[in-house]
Structure formats: C-alpha cells, structure tokens
Amino acid sequence: MSGIRMEANVHIITGLVTAAQNIYRCVERAGLTVEDIVLEPLASANAVLDEEEKEVGVALIDIGGGTTDIAVYEDKTIRHTSVVGIAGRMVTDDIRRGLGVIGEQAERIKREYGYALASMITNDEVFMIPGIGGRKPMEISKLMLAQIIQPRMEEILEFALMELKKSGYLRQLSAGVVLTGGGALLRGSVELAQEILGMPVKLGIPTGFGGSGLAPEVESPIYATAIGLVMHALGRDESVSLTLDDDTDVSTESHLTQGDGSRTSILSRMRKFFDEF
C-alpha cells in the first residue's frame, strides 16, 4: 500500500495522569503488569450494547458508585464519552444524612427498599431500621425514602442529559438510552430516566461472550464494566481461549507478567499504530 497523505478520525480521551498512575501502582504491587487501560463507559458498552444499537445511535449511561459514565455511539462509531462526578455513592450519603444512619445501613436500605421514582409507590409500606448505640429501632416509610433518593437521581440524569446535548447527537439516538451500573438497579430508575431524557430507556444487562451466556451471579448491570474488560482482553489476545461447558469450566492462558512494565504515552501509541499500519 502506498500514498501521499493519510487521514484518520480518532477519539482521544484525556484525564488525570495521577489516576492512571495509581492504577498501575496497585496492579504492580500485586505482582502483575497492566496490559491496557480502558475507559469505563467503553468497557460497559462492550458488554451491554449490540451492533444494531451502535449503528442506529445509542447512548450508554453507567451509574456506578463514584462516577456516572456516558458513551454515545452512532454509525457503529464512538462519538462522545464523558465522566460525571456524581453517582450512587452520593445517593447513599443522602440516605445516611436524611435518616441518621451509618453508611453500611444506608447502602443496605437503598438496595432493599429504595425507589428512584416516588410516584411508583402505590402502597406506602414501612420498614424498621435498628437504632444506633442502643437506641430504639426507627420506623421509616418507603415513600419518605423515595423522596430522599429521587432528587439526587434526577440530578444525575440531568447531568447526563447535558452531556448528551453537548455531544451533538441527542437527536440521532434512534435506539434511545441503555442504563447500566449498580445505580440502574434502583426501582424506577428506567422510568425516571425516560421522564427526564425524553426518549426510550432500557436496562443494560451483560449478555456474555459470543452468545455463550453468563452465570446468573454476574448477569447484572453491576458487573457490566468488569465483563466488558474481560471481553476487551479476549478480543486483543488471540491466544486466550474461553471454554464454557455444562460444568462452567473456564480455561484461559494468562499473559499477565511480573515486572515493572512499560508506560507508553498517547503519542507513542499513535506513532506505533501508524508504523504498524
């Protein structure tokens, strides 16, 4: 192949160098070497979006614990990514402050009784939470809990909507939005997202590896990013094989090595890409 000029459309992601360095250090202290770093929304998208959605236009919103991650696809191409610094942990903190409980209790209450949309509660039941320091248990209504949760979930989704508008592809999202991450498991999250975003929304669940399916324990939006990272690794390394049989026996050949590992800059990675091309 020969030519005078070559052009490429690339999606460059920028972030704090210290954040990446901390990841490297943690892995290296475990005696391993980092093979690659993948942006969280891209990993999640790899696990829950199909090729048809990516072609017609779709947005992924991954509500995690510390961040809400957004990825926009159109014509099978990544068009926009962003990370918003409010997510499920802030919902938990609101519950902790609003009910006067410890963080561990707040997280359990959120998972067991929480609703993102108060209007979905037709029969306002109550539940008991243990008192702190020998105090009497408290009686809390589900409606009261939802009224604590909903404003923060609205804020998260409104920030996500701002990012979708910023991308310039808001009106090209024919497949709507796929909501994933632990925050998406709150009852009413999908319905609230439809109200705020003004488009169809569905819950994104990892589908597995090439149709092989997943164990029920990990077939959840909580594990979308982790499953996407495994799929990314399998796609990069042809020598890694994955076999699923009736006994769910997984066989892989690991290429994680010990040592310092090299850390290449974005410019050297791009230079290597064009050299190989």
Strand and helix layout:
Elements: H1 17-29, H2 40-48, H3 51-56, E1 58-63, E2 68-74, E3 77-84, H4 88-99, H5 103-113, E4 126-129, E5 138-141, H6 142-167, E6 177-180, H7 189-197, E7 201-203, H8 224-236, H9 266-276
Helix pairs in contact: 2-8, 4-5, 4-6, 6-7
Explain this structure to me?
The chain has 277 residues and is α/β, with parallel strands linked by helices. It has 2 domains: 41-86 and 154-257, Nucleotidyltransferase, domain 5, CATH 3.30.420.40; 88-150, Actin, Chain A, domain 4. It is 40% helix and 13% strand. It is built from 9 helices and 7 strands, in the order H-H-H-E-E-E-H-H-E-E-H-E-H-E-H-H. It has helices at residues 17-29, 40-48, 51-56, 88-99, 103-113, 142-167, 189-197, 224-236, 266-276, and strands at residues 58-63, 68-74, 77-84, 126-129, 138-141, 177-180, 201-203. A 5-stranded mixed β-sheet has the order 3-2-1-6-7, with helices on both faces. The chain has a two-stranded antiparallel ribbon with strand order 4-5. A hairpin with a 4-residue loop joins strand 1 (58-63) and strand 2. Helix 4 (88-99) packs across helix 5 and helix 6 crosses helix 7 (189-197). It is globular. Residues 238-264 have low confidence and may be disordered.
